[in-house]
Amino acid sequence: MFQLKNKFPENFLWGGATAANQIEGGSDVGGKGLSVADVYIFDPKMPKENWTDQWHMMTHKQVEEAQNPNSTKYYPKRYGIDFYHNYKEDIALFADMGFKVYRMSLAWTRIFPNGDELEPNEEGLAFYERVFDELNKHGIEPLVSLSHYEMPLHLATEYGGWVNRKVIDFYVRFATTVFKRYKDKVKYWVTFNEINCVKHHPWTSIGVVEENHPHIEQAKFQGAHHQFVASALAIKAWKEINPEVKVGCMISYQLLVPYSCDPDDIQKTVEKQRESLFFTDVQARGYYPAYTARMLAERNVVLETQPEDEQIMRENPVDFVSFSYYMSSAVSAHPENLEGAVGNLITGGVENPYLPKSEWGWQIDPKGLRSALNQLYDRYQKPLFIAENGLGAVDVVEEDGKINDDYRIDYLREHIKQIKEAIKDGVDVFGYTSWGCIDMISASTSQMSKRYGYIYVDQDDMGRGTKRRIKKKSFDWYKNVIASNGEQLD
Ligand code: BG6
User: Fold this and answer.
1) What is the mean pLDDT of each run of 10 residues along the chain (490 residues)?
2) CA 390 to ligand 1: nearest atom
3) pTM value?
4) Strands (DSSP E) along 170-273, which ranges?
5) Which CATH homologous superfamily contains domain 13-483?
6) How deeply is 84 buried, as exposed, middle or buried, from its count of CB atoms within 10 A (0-12, 13-18, 19+)?
7) Pocket, ligand 1, Cβ cutoff 6 A
8) What are the boundaries of each domain within the chain?
């Protein structure tokens, strides 16, 4: 009756993850339009501490400048690492590592350049067909995020982004078009990447410039509601075409722990954690959780909904829950009273004094991954997929041409150990795609030098370099992890 699981399941999906806007480049080929990601600049003259400002709050001025063909600014996500032209070589390297799965995303603007066209762009559809065929040739299963931080710029500037209900129809058209085309090539889909991150970056997530919305919380929740409905409608359409398809939701899960056992810290942690779990609650269960009414009321948010929304969501929950996990954070109800406590800039919490952190201040907590897996499984009893996990670091090419990224190996090893612990705890986790299997443009800072990959790309923050791919030390390490199905981690 009770069977202890001591190993990764035999068919565990090992692999890596990327996003189209961070790797593809080719923004001016194949009929592609501009997306919200193409507006982010990289400017080395800007003080380092301001590099993520645009990520958290995009301004009209910058959006306008990005649309000016004579702009002299550098927009790194338009160039990526040129996966568009190198996909065959890159996929061959993934295959060399033994990938079973490759998590990637589609650039919406390659298929509907402005987002509101009635007919898709054939060149864009054909590109992804070639990518899927290449993966198939190597026996790699694609897991595809339909929307990963790159809605068409036109939908943001002309329609006001996801706050406008019309965007639901455009998204569903996009979803249906690609699904009809790739139904025999892609089995696993994710409707929105890190859907909960609208709280950190409304521009990237829902195409909203804060200046337009004095009540930004209202805009964020309204945009999220429309994404919930859109996701449910996409699932409905896909299941009608192929009932076997597996669709997941995806959140950024930063495990939050109380800074102390003060009951106020504990209550605050529950509330903060719910700001993320709210999204999986809706998408995994198919309805808004009981705490929604208070959550909205306390933020003065009044959602505009349509009578059919509830039923659409209820009838179309996701099949699996996927998430990114990079760090954890402590939460204090009264951070102003803490002597010597350091604010955690990423999570808005407080740094946990027990944990080390990366060069970018992300606190490293492998055991937190086990807790996260257990929490999510206890809550939903649905299969879990770790869609992102990894260490952003500066890598050095030694004189002998080698890249000895032992720090990355350590990070990944410790996290994988904890996945195994969670499997032993009884959690159903069916795959792991570490973030940035190949170096690419950072989402939050637009740097190239914040590297996550097993494969080094010879390119600097301003896009200069040969783009040559070099295997890092972690490449062979991960190859061995996959070959031994997670048994050999040293
Ligand atoms: C996740 C995103 O939040 O974190 C990725 O889904 C992103 O797109 C990754 O690249 C790492 O973040 P960053 O800012 O270091 O690239």
Assistant:
1) 94 98 97 98 91 91 95 97 98 98 98 98 98 98 98 98 98 98 97 96 97 96 98 98 97 95 96 97 98 98 98 98 96 86 72 93 96 98 98 98 98 98 98 98 97 98 98 98 97
2) 11
3) 0.97
4) 188-192, 246-252, 255-258
5) Glycosidases (3.20.20.80)
6) buried
7) 19, 22, 149, 193-194, 252, 324, 388, 392, 435, 442-445, 450
8) 13-483
